């Protein structure tokens, strides 16, 4: 499985290098206070989520799966390798987000580190959730046919929330109950939040394994 | 010496094609050539052997392991070269070495390096810069570097020039020097198999029509060249297939020596695998 993750990294090293430059750029911009932490961490997760999708495309172009199934690894290992790669990338993006939190708090002397870290954890959760949804879709439909769903999964909630806000769907004061939730609870919840999509990843993995078991190469 | 591959009653159906009751045995220490026209079922058989597709019926044993329940154990000792190079264009041979050293517990980086040197493959060049011949040699180097006992090759020499093909065939012959090793190779290029194979299995329309030692086939089978009138004098039971043309007739004879004893006036020549394929593929039943 390590070999398969290594393969993904080596195949996409050029892409990863380019993304790393973006990452550095956003990090610098954030430290310089030109971007907010929430914007940077969201962008990082978005960029990183493209990598597993690209890995599927590269594999499809090379017909890698057919070859990889001649290895003594089995179909589940192929799926495990891809999930591990997605997990490593998502966590890496979150770590970069956390690093930017620390740097911002050092350079800006702001006392926002906890709030910023909460943002990172929420972004990490969303990144994991996207992986949970998109990886089985990629196995089922292939990367090209799954790509529209990628944009749908990312942008549909944003559009819906914006539309609801514009249409005043929630009504005045309908979300005011949120302010009554104690700060401590919000902080704890945000740090526990990634556990949910992480657990969902197990379900997603099982679904992907089942799809893979039925496939013919 | 055990059998490297044993296939019993293999069946696999698609909408427009089916493999029917395939039986095949590849003894250790030998090379078996799998021949047949396009769509005859060679690749489907190899895919079933490698469990890339789900068979409908039958049993496949690889190196004494069931190919499904003992898949991982069997595949640890198998090297595979398929019809094209499946390495990503953005990989280099040294990357492949790093990847596969984590895949096979028996991977030998020094051996892989030796093959790269032998095949004159630059380790730092990207796969996309390789010619087809280089890619196939890279695939072969990758297939051999975990010291497998069984090599499975699906049209691995197709589209290669005779020099590269000869180089690869030499490698097969070197591999087979160890009597625990075996090779299953599917190919259209029957001349290569005549050089290297010990056994030939001929698939036609999803069925095994011939599976025997190559020398037996080439010694026993014969090609009868005669006129239409002469053909009428031959007992249909003595011929496998016939081809009738405006200039004469040809027939595939199953037992050349016996035929020659029975029909002293008729000329029966030695035949080739290609002739046999053409007779069975294009000839008429007698």
Number of helices of chain A: 9
Spatial separation of the terminal alpha carbons of chain A: 20 Å
Largest interface: A-B, 26 and 31 residues
Summed up, the helix count of chain B is 11
Report the strand count of chain B.
15
How many domain units of chain B? 2
What is the ordering of alpha helices and beta strands of chain A? HHHHHHHHH
Oligomer: heterodimer
Describe this structure in words.
The complex is a heterodimer of chains A (217) and B (286). Chain A is built from nine helices and no strands. With 217 residues, chain A is an all-alpha fold. Chain A has one domain (2-214). The longest helix of chain A has 34 residues, at 75-108. Chain A is globular, with a radius of gyration of 19 Å. The two termini of chain A are 20 Å apart. The mean pLDDT of chain A is 87. Chain B has 286 residues and is of the alpha/beta class. Chain B folds into two domains: 3-213, P-loop containing nucleotide triphosphate hydrolases (Rossmann fold), CATH 3.40.50.300; 221-282, no CATH class. Chain B has helices spanning 42-49, 71-75, 93-101, 109-118, 132-144, 162-175, 190-196, 214-220, 228-232, 256-262, 273-282, and strands spanning 3-13, 18-27, 31-35, 57-62, 65-66, 78-81, 150-154, 182-186, 199-204, 207-213, 222-226, 239-245, 248-253, 267-270, 284-285. In chain B, a hairpin with a 2-residue loop joins strand 9 and strand 10. The longest helix of chain B has 14 residues, at 162-175. Chain B starts with a strand and ends with a strand. The mean pLDDT of chain B is 91. At the A-B interface, helix 1, helix 3 and helix 4 of A face helix 2 and helix 3 of B.
């Amino acid at each position: 499985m390590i070999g398969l993750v290594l393969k993904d990294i080596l195949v996409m090293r050029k892409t990863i290098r380019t993304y790393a430059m973006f990452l550095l750029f956003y990090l610098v911009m954030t430290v310089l206070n030109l971007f907010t932490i929430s914007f940077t961490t969201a962008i990082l997760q978005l960029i990183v989520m493209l990598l597993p999708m690209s890995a599927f495309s590269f594999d499809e172009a090379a017909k890698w799966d057919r070859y990889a199934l001649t290895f003594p690894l089995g179909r589940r290992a192929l799926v495990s390798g891809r999930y591990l790669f997605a997990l490593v990338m998502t966590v890496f993006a979150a770590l970069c987000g956390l690093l930017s939190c620390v740097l911002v708090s050092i350079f800006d002397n702001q006392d926002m580190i906890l709030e910023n870290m909460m943002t990172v954890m929420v972004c990490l959760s969303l990144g994991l959730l996207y992986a949970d949804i998109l990886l089985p879709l990629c196995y089922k439909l292939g990367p090209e046919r799954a790509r529209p769903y990628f944009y749908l999964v990312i942008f549909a909630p944003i559009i819906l929330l914006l539309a609801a806000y514009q249409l005043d769907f929630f009504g005045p004061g309908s979300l005011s109950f949120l302010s009554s939730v104690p700060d401590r609870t919000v902080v704890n919840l945000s740090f526990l939040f990634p556990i949910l999509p992480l657990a969902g990843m197990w379900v997603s993995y099982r679904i992907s394994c089942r799809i893979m078991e039925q496939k013919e190469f | 010496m055990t059998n490297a591959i044993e296939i019993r009653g293999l069946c696999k159906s698609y909408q427009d094609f089916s493999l029917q009751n395939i039986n095949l045995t590849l003894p250790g220490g030998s090379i078996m050539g799998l021949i047949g026209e396009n769509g005859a079922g060679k690749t489907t058989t190899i895919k079933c052997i490698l469990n890339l597709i789900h068979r409908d019926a039958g049993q496949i044993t690889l190196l004494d392991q069931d190919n499904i329940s003992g898949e991982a154990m069997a595949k640890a000792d198998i090297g595979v070269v398929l019809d094209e190079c499946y390495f990503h264009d953005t990989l280099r041979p040294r990357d492949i070495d790093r990847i596969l050293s984590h895949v096979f517990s028996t991977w030998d980086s020094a051996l892989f390096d030796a093959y790269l040197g032998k095949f004159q493959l630059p380790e730092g060049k990207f796969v996309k810069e390789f010619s087809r011949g280089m890619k196939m040699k890279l695939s072969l180097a990758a297939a051999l570097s975990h010291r497998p006992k069984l090599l499975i090759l699906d049209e691995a020499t197709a589209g290669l020039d005779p020099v590269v093909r000869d180089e690869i065939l030499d490698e097969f012959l070197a591999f087979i020097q160890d009597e625990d090793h075996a090779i299953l190779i599917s190919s259209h290029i029957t001349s290569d198999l005549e050089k290297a194979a010990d056994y030939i299995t001929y698939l036609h329309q999803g069925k095994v029509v011939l599976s025997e030692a190559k020398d037996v086939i080439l010694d026993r089978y014969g090609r009868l060249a005669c006129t239409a009138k002469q053909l009428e004098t031959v007992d249909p039971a003595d011929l496998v297939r016939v081809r009738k043309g405006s200039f004469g007739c040809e027939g595939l004879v199953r037992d050349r020596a016996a035929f020659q004893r029975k029909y002293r006036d008729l000329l029966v020549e030695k035949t080739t695998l290609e002739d046999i394929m053409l007779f069975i593929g294009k000839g008429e039943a007698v």
